Each structure stands twice: as C-alpha cells, then as structure tokens.
C-alpha cells in the first residue's frame, strides 16, 4: 500500500496510528515517512519507529547519569567513607566497582539494548526467569512511591528557605523546652567552701573554666533544626501505631512533585531527555559552589581531614564490615537490578557502544560520590568548629544529614537563605532524575507488555502518576516517615540482591555467557578473546559470589526496622515481610506457570522454559543477521496472520478495506 492509498480519518488520528503499525502492507520505510503512521512520541528519523529512540547520545548519557547519581551519593557515601577509614575506604569501594558494580551495569545495558525491550520482555531469553523482571518492576513501583515523598520533603524545605532568618536557625514558638542551640550539660563542682554544687557548663565557659569529664551531667537537648524536622516539617507522631492526619503541606508538595514528573515524561524519553540537561548537570554546579564556599570557612580543613585526609585509618581494611559497606554502596548507587538500566538502554540504537557508555556512567557516578563528600564535610567541619564539637558528633547520614545537620550548618553562614535554596534545589534535581528513570521503567514495561498502550503514552504516564500519588498519601501523614523508612528497609534491600544473583545465573549459565557475548558483539563489533576474559570471570564467578556474600551477610545481620529510638510494632514488621514476599513471589509463580504451559515431559518442559522463545532477538529484522534470521519476532507473526485475512475497519460509520 503506498503513501497515497492510506485511509484518512482526520478526527481519529490515534486509530490511524494503530492501523498503520498493524497493517502488513505498510513497509518500515513508509512508516517513517507517512505522517498518518507517525506516533507523536517518536521521531521520523528514529531507527525504531514503533518504540522510538533517544534523540541524541547526550540525552541517553545524561539520563543514565541522572538515574545512577541520586540522593545516596550525597547523603550516604560521605558518611560511609568517614565511618570506614576515610581515604582508605576508596580502596574497597574501587575494587567492588570493578568486581560487582561495573560488570552488572554493562550486562544490563547490553541486555536491554540488544532486544530493545523493557525489564520483563527481555526475559524471553530465559522464560523461566521472567518473574525476575516482574520483581524488578514491582520493587521500582514501591520505590517510586516513597522516593517522591523524599523529593516532597526537599520541595517543602526549598519553599521554607525563602525566609530570613531560616525558620530552623533558632528555637521559635514551635519548639519545646528541650530545644537549645547550645549544650545544656551540668557540672558537679566543688565550691570555695568545700560543698558540692551543680552548675551549668555555659556558666563555666563564661568564666574560662572547663568541667572535668567525669563530673559532667548530660542533659538531653535537641537543636532547632532537629525539632523543626520533627515538629514542623513532618509533624511526626510517636510511632507507626499513631497514623494521625495527612500533613497537608507535605501532601501538596508531593502533588507538585508528581506534576513535575508527569510533565517531564509526557512524551517519554523525548521530553525527559531534554529535562535532564538541567536536572543532571545542575547538582554539579551547586556542589562546586558549596565546595568553594565550604573551603573558605574556618574549620573546613578539620572536616576534610576526617572525611578523607590524614586521619584515614587503613587498619579498617581488615574489617569485613568495611568491605560489605563498600559493596553494598556501589551496588545500590549504580541502580543495578532495578530494571531501569534495561528500560533506558532499550531506547538506544542497536549499534550504540554500550560498553563505553557503561564505563562513562560508572566512573561519573563514583567520582560524584567522592566529590560530594568534600562539599559536605567542609561545611560540617565548620559547624563542628563553631559548636566546639568533634566532627564525629555532627556527621550523620540519610535524613539526618539532608534535613538536620546540613541545614543547621547552612543556617550559620552569612546569607544563609541563598545557600539553603541552592542545597535543596540540588537535592530536588538529584531526586527527580532518578524518579524520571523509575517511572520510565514502569511505563516502558506496561507498553511493552500491552501493545495497545503504545500510542497512549500520555494517558499511561498521567494515570500512573495519579495512582502512585494516591498510594503515597499514607507516607505524608504524621506517621509518614515511618512508612517511608519501612518500605525502604524491606523493598530496597536484599530483594534486589536476589534479583541480581538470579540475573547473573540466568544469563551466564542458562542463556549462556558465550552466547550473550556474541550478542554484544553484534552491537559493538567483535573483540579479542582477552577483552572478554575479565567479563567472563565476573559474570560467571566473581560477581555472583560477591553478591551472594553480601546477601548472606545482610540476612545474618538483619535487624527489625526502627526510626531513631522508635521501634516498629510487630504488625509493622509483618507488613514489611508481606511486601517482600509479594515482590519475590512472582519469581517462582511465573516459573511454575511457564513450566505448566510448556508441552512434553517434565524434562522437555524445563528445557523449553530455559530456552529463548521464538520471538527472542533484536527488535528489528535488519539487525538479526545470520544468527537470528530464522527466528521470527512476535510482531512479524501477527503481520503474517493479518496478511492471510481481510481486515475491515469501521470508523465513523465508514468501511475502509485494507
């Protein structure tokens, strides 16, 4: 059917798109050049006109960097480095990047790019493990719910930063009697007449005297930033049992966060690929500004010394905990086994060099973590100097660093609102990048599995955002922070480790490592045998063993979730285990269903579900080459059936015979 013979239905362009892609008489070249066949979410010059491709290599790389570089690079890595020997921690961190992080990252990018499919459909290579892909997507869904709540916290603090002085800079009317900017410890001293009296340590300081350590009577106090976080931002209840009402300022910030995500993804990678030019690069500008400002502060050198300077403790390398922390951090920092790497890479052109991309993104991610540590600890060193405390007492990680320690430090700087605005815009952009990729993972999976959704991307994106916003409302109640912590504790932990181990086993041993290497060479060209020596060693032996060791360690050292001093009730922990079971149960369920549906004896069925399906291979026929020329893709099979049948379509009461 030529371009001039296509049926024209002006008021139903969505139907025409579906008709065009399902019409066997329309060639690939006609799909690219015919306006009626053009999906508005793809470009005419895309290699894959049905799924679309990245507009440019830069769009892809920035999206991958934005996905990998997240909040953990700023609020977790610097603290881990300080806790585990400072500069010495970089040794196990780099080793674990080479042994576990980079091999898995390269594997997933290659896997998604080769077949141009999302994290579920790629498992047509090993059908018995398709449940692993479903687990990845479900975990990403749980993470999307609570991760956007953290972004909402950043938005709230961003708005609160447009005040002078900053609202957490002092104990204002929202605080209680335990709030204090200075320690209120007491000291048991001997008076001039020989009697024991208790005095305030501040009184001693004013008299240029100190209290002997053994005579100090500690009085618990909270600094203003800590009370502001609990009493104003979160309005935190006493525990998970006390849900309380929705905190409306957080609910509105959560709504704004989802509006931003939906707006950025309304055209999929075509729109998000442009947004990341700002969201992926701006954090580096802010980190550089904060580093330059922090380096000029008094006491900054002390903070840097604690972070990665001369106080590095190389004896820590003998402790297994240090290596476990390094492996865990590099694994989660690169966002492997979440499904996002496959989803984003599936939009690459077939011959894109995924090997060099993996190196670039992994090195950038790790470099960002180290760089962020300098910006964080230079300012923490200053706050320790001003408050006359050791750096160890002001150094925190996670929520404590992002919303308590660092905001407190910024409040003590001249023009503090400016630095606070910059910091929380940085947190906002760091979070949004990762959230874009998480949502793209979900929508890509839905569109790959349900073909009729391909031309309805806007509706899929907006409906997903609305549903996840509603599911996130419990996380912005007065007990919301407990729910956020609970989901993070159970869903973003060792479930991903199990998925990663099965992924390595499935591709390396069931599908075949050598076969997978030949697939990669179809994309990036043939390489010498010694080029693949390291990757074979990692995919077959080293990476699985490292991940299994981390998994076993995590299970042995598992502790019930808690938030600060608040211990979760038994029913809360049970809900966490139910979420874990729900995520993992799809792996055996899908394996069982696939085996039951297969034909033949039990052994024949197992062989069938462990072998690639008939439609496994490169998405486009022009890329299948000799290795996959006999394998027919599912969409080609559908077209063959359509060629054998006259298709009549009734639109607006007119019959149009194709």
Notes on the structure:
It contains 26 helices and seven strands. The chain has helices at residues 13-22, 28-33, 57-68, 71-75, 77-83, 90-115, 130-160, 201-206, 224-233, 248-264, 269-279, 282-295, 300-308, 320-333, 340-345, 354-387, 391-394, 399-411, 416-449, 457-472, 480-491, 494-524, 529-556, 570-597, 602-609, 634-643, and strands at residues 186-190, 196-200, 216-217, 562-563, 566-567, 648-651, 654-657. Helix content is 61%, strand content 4%. It has 658 residues and is mainly α. The radius of gyration is 28 Å and the shape is elongated. The model is unreliable at 1-25, 32-38 and 641-658 (pLDDT under 50). The strands form three sheets. A three-stranded antiparallel sheet has the order 2-1-3. It has a two-stranded antiparallel sheet with strand order 4-5. The longest helix has 34 residues, at 354-387.
Topology:
Elements: H1 13-22, H2 28-33, H3 57-68, H4 71-75, H5 77-83, H6 90-115, H7 130-160, E1 186-190, E2 196-200, H8 201-206, E3 216-217, H9 224-233, H10 248-264, H11 269-279, H12 282-295, H13 300-308, H14 320-333, H15 340-345, H16 354-387, H17 391-394, H18 399-411, H19 416-449, H20 457-472, H21 480-491, H22 494-524, H23 529-556, E4 562-563, E5 566-567, H24 570-597, H25 602-609, H26 634-643, E6 648-651, E7 654-657
Antiparallel strand pairs: 1-2, 1-3, 4-5, 6-7
Helix pairs in contact: 3-11, 3-16, 3-19, 5-16, 6-14, 6-16, 6-22, 6-23, 7-10, 7-19, 7-20, 7-21, 7-22, 7-24, 9-18, 10-19, 10-20, 11-19, 12-16, 12-19, 13-16, 16-18, 18-19, 19-20, 21-24, 22-23, 24-25
């Amino acid at each position: 059917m030529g371009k001039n013979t296509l049926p024209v239905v002006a008021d139903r362009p969505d139907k025409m798109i579906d008709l065009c892609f399902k019409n066997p008489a329309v060639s690939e070249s006609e799909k690219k050049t015919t306006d009626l066949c053009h999906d508005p979410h793809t470009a005419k010059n895309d290699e894959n006109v049905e799924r679309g491709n990245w507009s440019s290599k830069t769009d892809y790389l920035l999206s991958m960097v934005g996905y990998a570089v997240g909040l953990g690079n700023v609020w977790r890595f610097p603290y881990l480095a300080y806790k585990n020997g400072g500069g010495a921690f970089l040794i196990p961190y780099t080793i674990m990047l080479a042994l576990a992080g980079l091999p898995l990252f390269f594997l997933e990018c290659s896997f998604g790019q080769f077949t141009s499919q999302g994290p579920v459909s790629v498992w047509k290579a090993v059908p018995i493990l398709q449940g692993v892909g479903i687990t990845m997507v479900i975990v990403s869904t749980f993470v999307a719910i609570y991760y956007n709540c953290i972004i909402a916290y950043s938005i709230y603090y961003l708005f609160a930063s447009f005040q002078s002085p900053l609202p957490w800079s002092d104990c204002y009317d929202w605080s209680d009697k335990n709030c204090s900017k200075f320690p209120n410890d007491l000291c048991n001293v001997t008076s001039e007449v020989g009697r024991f009296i208790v005095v305030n340590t501040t009184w001693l300081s004013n008299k240029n005297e100190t209290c002997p350590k053994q005579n100090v009577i500690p009085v618990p106090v909270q600094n203003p930033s800590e009370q502001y976080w609990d009493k104003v931002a979160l309005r935190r209840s006493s525990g998970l049992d006390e849900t309380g009402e929705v905190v409306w300022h957080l609910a509105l910030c959560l709504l704004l966060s989802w509006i931003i995500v939906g707006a950025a993804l309304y055209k999929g990678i075509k729109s998000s690929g442009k947004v990341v030019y700002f969201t992926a690069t701006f954090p580096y500008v802010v980190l550089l500004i904060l580093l330059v400002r922090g380096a000029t502060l008094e006491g900054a050198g002390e903070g840097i010394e604690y972070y990665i300077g001369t106080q590095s403790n190389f004896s820590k390398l003998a402790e297994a905990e240090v290596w476990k922390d390094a492996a865990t951090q590099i694994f989660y920092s690169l966002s492997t086994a979440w499904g996002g790497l496959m989803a984003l890479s599936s939009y690459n052109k077939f011959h894109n060099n995924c090997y060099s991309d993996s190196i670039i993104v992994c090195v950038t991610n790790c470099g960002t973590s180290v760089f962020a540590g300098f910006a964080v600890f230079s300012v923490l060193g200053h706050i320790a100097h001003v408050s006359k405390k050791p750096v160890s007492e002001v150094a925190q990680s996670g929520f404590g660093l992002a919303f308590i320690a660092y905001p407190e430090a910024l409040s003590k700087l001249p023009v503090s609102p400016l630095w606070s605005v910059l910091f929380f815009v940085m947190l906002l952009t760091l979070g949004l990048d990762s959230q874009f990729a998480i949502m793209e993972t979900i929508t890509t999976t839905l569109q790959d599995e349900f073909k009729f959704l391909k031309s309805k991307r806007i509706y899929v994106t907006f409906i997903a955002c609305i549903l996840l916003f509603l599911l996130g409302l419990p996380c912005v109640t007065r007990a919301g922070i407990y729910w956020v912590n609970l989901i993070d504790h159970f869903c973003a932990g060792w479930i991903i480790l199990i998925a990663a181990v099965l992924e390595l086993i499935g591709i390396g041993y069931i599908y075949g490592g050598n076969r997978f290497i030949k697939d990669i060479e179809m994309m990036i060209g043939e390489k010498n045998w010694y080029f693949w020596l390291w990757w074979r060693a990692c995919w077959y032996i080293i990476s699985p063993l490292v991940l299994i060791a981390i998994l076993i360690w995590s299970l042995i050292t598992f502790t019930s979730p808690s938030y600060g001093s608040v211990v979760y009730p038994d029913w809360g922990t049970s809900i966490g285990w139910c979420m874990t079971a729900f995520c993992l149960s799809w792996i055996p369920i899908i394996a069982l269903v696939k085996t039951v549906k297969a034909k033949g004896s039990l052994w024949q069925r197992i062989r069938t579900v462990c072998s690639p399906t008939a439609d496994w291979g490169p998405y486009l026929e022009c890329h299948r080459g000799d290795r996959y020329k006999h394998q027919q893709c599912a969409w080609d099979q559908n077209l063959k059936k359509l060629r054998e049948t006259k298709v009549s379509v009734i639109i607006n009461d007119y019959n149009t015979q194709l």
